[in-house]
Amino acid sequence: MSLNITQQAADWYKKELGLQSGDYVRFYARYSNTSDIHPGFSLGIATEEPSNPGLTQDSEGITFYMEEKDLWYLDGYRLNVTYLAEQDDILYAYERE
Fold first, then answer.
1. Distance between CA 65 and CA 58 in Å, rounded?
2. Label partner for 23 (CA 20 to 30 A): which of 3, 30, 48, 57?
3. 5 CB burial (10 A radius; 0-12, 13-18, 19+)
């Protein structure tokens, strides 16, 4: 399992969430309608410091991470986070590893 956040996606997070170099973005599993990989769950985000990070990637001065307790959500997958310029939005794509 791994994270891949593009430079353009990191820049979008910085702009949209008012982040600065040294800040954190947490990805976590949350109850929701559905996702491509886990029915009944989807990917949530929060801007908070990690307590027990199990997976991290730094991009454009921001640390993107997933806590150890949420790693089950990406088991066997790579999360690719890219920026969609035509929609000024983020795309989350799951790729089997």
1. 9
2. 30
3. buried
